[in-house]
Amino acid sequence: MRLLKSTALAMAFISPAIAQAATDGTPGATSTSTFNATATVNPPIVTQVQVFGLDDFAFAPIQSGSVSGGGQTQSDLFCLARNTPGNVLVTIRQFGKGPNERFQLVEDFTGFPVTITSVEIQSPSSGALASFPYSTHTNTVQVSGNGCSASSDGMVANKMIIKIPQTADFTTTYPRSVIARFEISVAPQ
User: Fold this and answer.
1) Distance between CA atoms of 188 and 47, rounded to whole angstroms?
2) Is CB count within 10 Å lower at the N or C end of the chain?
3) Given pLDDT bands bounded at 50, 70 and 90, which one contains residue 19?
4) How distant is the alpha carbon of residue 177 from its chain centre?
């Protein structure tokens, strides 16, 4: 019994206060009550971003000849999502191109280039355009609206816009197929 009392006394000194329910004070000239305050501390929210819903772009055939005005524009709605408030930084890179090189459609990724006139991302609702004039260019873009999906409209989804010239200067046999492969990376701003 003596060992049990010693152990209980020792535990009282080394253990933190054990939470008990709030108590009411007793009536008298003074009165004292106790209560607890608790909170759960969660780990910090890690910002996560996602790009989804982009499809391939297929342009109509273009004519050989001197590059001239006009051209074709293709666009696709897609989503840029972020789990915390703020914009995103978007980088568009063309495979086979170094930083600051112009975007091009090329035959077999090597030759016969068709220079891409422009690559832009339009923000939802505001319509603001972020331009990507060359490979590995980064720009700030507004995230898509809540509930964005690949079938959302331009008031919710972002829009990728790519423009090419109507003609290209080739001095070879035809037809030629030209292609470009892109990578889009998204990070919190």
Assistant:
1) 7
2) N
3) low
4) 32
